[in-house]
Design goal:
- This protein is of the alpha+beta class.
- The chain folds into three domains: about 1-155 and about 195-325, no CATH class; about 380-480, Sandwich (Immunoglobulin-like); about 485-565, Immunoglobulin-like (Sandwich).
- It is built from eleven helices and 33 strands.
- The strands form eight sheets. Strands 1, 2, 4, 7, 8, 12 and 16 form a seven-stranded antiparallel beta sheet that branches. The chain has a five-stranded mixed beta sheet with strand order 18-19-25-24-21, with no helix packed on it.
- The protein is globular.
- Keywords: Signal.
């Protein structure tokens, strides 16, 4: 009788023990779908073409700073629930240290709840946008992913929270928060979930991605996780605990004295595994990526010939895709909206006090904020052929210059004028005007002395109306000649290594034409670059000896060819 009682107590204790978090593995995916370590040499942060670079203070990154992150798909191997039916919520938090204020630097996304989920199933979503498209405004991107198994039957508070998330998801845009109010709602819900359901975490991952930056020093000994275009696979190995693993103490016979307690726990462990929801043996084993490949279907098992067999089902996994590029204007408009969040904060202080009237009041406020978002997204974009980075360029050799703009349909152009800041005098006339687009001809103001554009600068000013309000758009205009060989000089900084030399290259603007530069090649190879006032720094370290040809191309069609020898050809 005592033995039966002991076994029963042991069974109840082990059955009620929460499962440990387990081990998380991260792999990147190469062009052929093979898994590999996500860490790379820090030298790749300097000039790798797939890396997302930090936005420079002057905003010049040649478009290398835009990116977006997507949760493509997920397979949930094991969800801790007695009846095998679960409610699952994904909470993803992104932080870029820009202002130093966590309220504005952090964005939280909530996906779900996904109801009636069983063990061993792919989550019912595909290619969900988590973050961006936006500019990379910091050196690091911190990403925290939590996956919860959330049971409606666990408590009244759990039920109330899930019902609120489900009913308010569309109004509050929890999966895509726009306004500060929505961002705050998502954060507070995430905090409540964490406090109420810490023991039901299916997965928890905290990781820092490092952005590219030409200021990094090349090193062969440091490895980092880069923020770069590509796929990442996150795999969870379930953790062992007393009563779930037969070899918990002996650790798969590596600790022989542990066989004794394992023997005494044999029957309780058998009962626990037979009558409760515990991880199976395959999910408890160490993750190994041999025989696996990523296909369009997800993480896939392959045979010895490399042919896919089916979805990998031994463990829980997530697939992330980081995409370089994209239109960042919408994100900028979102972050610019900061409506009052007092009502939301008052509501969330007590998750059990959600009332229809409160929800309706906040929803109406968010609708007004959404209307403001439409207004904020209204804008004018420069589309001239001879323009870049929202600056229009005039070739002094041409008699006229065409400046074209496009704008959203809710904009009405009221007036366009030109204002000079120095010797540049311009007359303005309308060439064409259609819905959402207009073109203007710029010509030099005729004088007795000259009938050509003077070298100088000015602003094309557009007054426009949107939603009954009058706004102003100012577009910088620069007039100059095309880039030639005489406009730039070059210099190099040589570094002496062990048995080898390397160098960095810098170009100096001699005639105020640096803003015209669109492309630079070194020895006929495209090279990344950053602009700092009148200097251009070429990205990366170089080691080629002898005279090297540097080609600089400009927006006006000009080209400069320079030759530089940093290391003598021996």
């Amino acid at each position: 009788m005592k033995l039966i009682t002991l076994l029963l107590v042991s069974f109840l204790l082990t059955a009620c023990t929460s499962n440990p978090m387990g081990t998380i593995s991260i792999r990147s995916v190469d062009q052929k779908g093979n898994l590999e370590s996500p860490l790379v040499n820090s030298a790749e942060l300097i000039d790798d073409k797939y890396t997302i670079f930090k936005t420079e203070e002057d905003g010049s990154t040649s478009g290398d700073d835009a990116y977006a992150i997507y949760l493509t798909d997920s397979y949930l191997k094991y969800l801790s629930d007695w009846w095998g039916i679960n409610e699952v919520i994904f909470v993803v938090e992104f932080t870029e240290a820009v202002t130093g204020n966590r309220e504005t630097d952090t964005t939280t996304k909530i996906l779900g709840p996904y109801e009636n989920m069983a063990d061993g199933i792919k989550a019912p979503f595909f290619n969900k946008a988590l973050y961006g498209p936006k500019k990379m405004e910091s050196d690091l991107l911190t990403m925290n992913i939590k996956v919860y198994e959330y049971d409606l039957d666990e408590s009244d508070q759990s039920s109330a929270m899930l019902e609120f998330i489900a009913s308010a998801a569309e109004s509050f845009s929890l999966s895509n928060p726009v306004t500060l109010g929505e961002i705050k709602v998502a954060k507070e819900i995430a905090n409540t979930l964490l406090l109420a359901n810490e023991n039901d975490l299916v997965m928890n991952l905290d990781v820092d991605f490092v952005a590219g930056n030409a200021d990094y020093v090349s090193s062969n000994h440091s490895n980092v996780l880069p923020l770069k275009s590509g796929q990442f696979i996150i795999v969870k190995q379930e953790g062992c605990s007393v009563g779930t693993c037969y070899d918990y103490f002996s650790n798969d016979w590596s600790n022989l004295p542990g066989l004794i307690p394992d023997f005494f726990m044999l029957i309780p462990t058998t009962l626990n595994r037979a009558f409760t929801d515990t991880p199976d043996r395959s999910s408890l084993k160490e993750f190994k990526d041999e025989g696996l490949k990523v296909t369009k279907a997800g993480l896939t098992t392959i045979n010895k010939q490399g042919a896919p067999i089916g979805i990998y089902k031994d463990k829980t996994w997530l697939r992330l895709n980081i995409v370089k590029g994209g239109d960042t204007s919408q994100w900028t408009a979102r972050k610019a909206l900061y409506p009052s969040a007092e009502e939301i904060e008052a509501l969330l202080k007590n998750p059990n006090s959600f009332e229809t009237e409160n929800l309706q009041n906040i929803t109406q406020g968010l609708i007004k904020a959404q209307q403001s978002l439409v207004e904020a997204k209204a804008g004018i974009t420069l589309t001239s052929l001879q323009s870049q980075k929202e600056t229009h360029f005039i070739d002094q050799a041409n008699p006229t210059s065409d400046l074209c703009i496009k704008y959203t349909n809710n904009i009405d152009i009221i007036q366009a004028t030109f204002t000079s800041t120095d010797a540049l005098a311009v007359d303005l006339s309308l060439l064409s005007d259609s819905k959402g687009a207009s073109c203007y001809q710029l010509s030099p103001t005729a004088t007795d002395d000259a009938k050509a554009f003077a070298k100088g600068s000015g602003s094309f000013i557009v007054n426009y109306g949107v939603n009954g309000k009058v706004k102003v758009k100012s577009i910088p205009v620069l007039a100059n000649n095309k880039i030639t060989n005489e406009d730039f000089a070059s210099e190099c900084t040589v570094f002496n290594g062990e048995g080898s030399k390397s160098y960095q290259l810098k170009l100096i603007d001699l005639n105020n034409k640096v803003e015209q530069v669109t492309n630079i090649t070194l020895a006929d190879t495209d090279t990344s670059f950053t602009i700092n006032k009148n200097d251009i720094s070429l990205g990366g370290m170089f080691s080629a000896a002898g005279s090297q040809t540097i080609t600089i191309k400009g927006i006006l069609g000009g080209t400069a060819n320079l030759s530089k020898e940093c290391i003598a050809d021996t």
